Give the backbone structure.
Amino acid sequence: MYIEVRLYATLRRYYPSWIAGVSSVEVQPDSRVSDLLNTMKIDTAEVHIIMVNGISSTLDSALQEGDRVGLFPAVGGG
Amino acid sequence: MARNNSLEKLEKGEIPERYQRNIGTIGVVGQQKLLRGKVVIVGAGGLGGNIIELLARQGVGFIRVIDGDSFAVHNLNRQLLATEQNIGVNKAIAAVERIAAINSDIITEAIPQMLTKENAKELLADVDVVVDALDNIRDRLLLSQITRELGLPFVHGAIAGFTGQVTTLLPGDVGLERIYKKDSSGEKGIETQLGNPATTPALAAAIQCQEVVKLLTGIGEVLQNRLLYFDTEFNLFEVLTLK
């Protein structure tokens, strides 16, 4: 199944060719967010906020075909 | 006192000239609520300098500023209160001088110390809103925890590069651990890579100030259980639902 992934800020460096940090990623059916990150080879330590269809989620959250996943690093400056 | 004069005028339905352009948005009653409002701003750097400037002009009647740090040359790119003349001066002291120059209605308190576990409850006492203008995750988690214990509204903001985020926590809400991993205590965020440019703190600070105005006046909706996240490199402004 395909998931629409949007990478924010520094996470875009994992896929610099994606336009504006957005692309579709294929994962196995019944995948969770952690499986998506494994497929994408993104270090989970770098991901502080996970959004699935605009709602905060976790590494264990189940995914469905067509879900929109946003991955956010920690922003801490002032 | 100037503040009492302004309040007396507003109670009679007269508008002090300095607040004339506020009234269409917040009304006479809203301006009275702001002048009676008490806000503590923790940090007077990139976010804090802008927040202090805007809340002073908007007419929040009591502003306490906490910051034990002094201005350095590398602050000049973004910290509104930093000037070539005040390098080495404590940021909280510079903040209250700036407020006094902008709006004599405002009662100020400068606390030239860092917020710690030991002094936090005392320094956050007797205010209506706590504003997070810190520069690291560890101190933000501490501030969020203590603010929660005190049952005070808390306006969080943070920035890095083209990116920033704002949310408001009300008494009883889950703290900033919804945004930062618990094991991130002591860590810095992506600002270590992206830096803190001039414009991003101003953008986040303005949104934080609007949260403060809404909290004090009761106008509109605050970002409770929501995180406004902007990433202007690609013109993204997202309002995310926090569970």
